[in-house]
User: Which sequence fits this backbone?
């Protein structure tokens, strides 16, 4: 289970699976990893106010009855509450190779948004609109592995081609 916690709650042996920052803004090689040192926690506290941990891959916050887990967006700095790991409109790549655009942030698990797929696993442009909800329990094997720059010319070309092909299919 993914939990949103304050950085101050991080402990060694917790599995980090997200932060309130974009991965490229952090000095870590990986986006998801097991916390193995106090140096990692110290570095994260310099950059982040809250993080996401996976309690199935690492330790949980103890004791949960202290209610220090951030459960409501109101307890977070208002500027940070508007930030999402995968905001609507961002381009992502899945572990299957498919490319898509985030269309809806999943409030229960921001790491599992709803996507409009642009390509199949072989990077071939899709001709019909295909929506994929990563929050669906039947899609547990699918994961976002890469956040792509929406202004990247390749992504812009894919979007333009997708709209053009979709328009031609709709006319037929």
Assistant:
């Amino acid at each position: 289970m993914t939990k949103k916690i304050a950085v101050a709650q991080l402990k060694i042996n917790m599995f980090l699976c997200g932060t309130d920052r974009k991965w490229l803004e952090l000095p870590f090689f990986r986006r998801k990893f097991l916390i193995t040192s106090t140096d990692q926690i110290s570095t994260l506290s310099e950059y982040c106010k809250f993080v996401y941990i996976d309690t199935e891959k690492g330790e949980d916050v103890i004791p949960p009855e202290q209610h220090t887990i951030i459960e409501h967006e109101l307890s977070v700095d208002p500027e940070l509450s508007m930030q999402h790991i995968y905001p609507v409109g961002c381009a992502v790549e899945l572990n299957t190779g498919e490319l898509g655009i985030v269309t809806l942030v999943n409030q229960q698990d921001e790491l599992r948004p709803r996507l409009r797929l642009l390509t199949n696993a072989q990077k071939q442009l899709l001709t019909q609109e295909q929506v994929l909800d990563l929050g669906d329990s039947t899609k547990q094997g699918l994961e976002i592995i890469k956040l792509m720059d929406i202004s990247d010319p390749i992504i812009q070309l894919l979007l333009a081609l997708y709209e053009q092909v979709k328009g031609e299919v709709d006319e037929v």
User: Anything to note?
Assistant: The chain has two domains: 2-81, 91-171. Residues 91-171 form one domain.
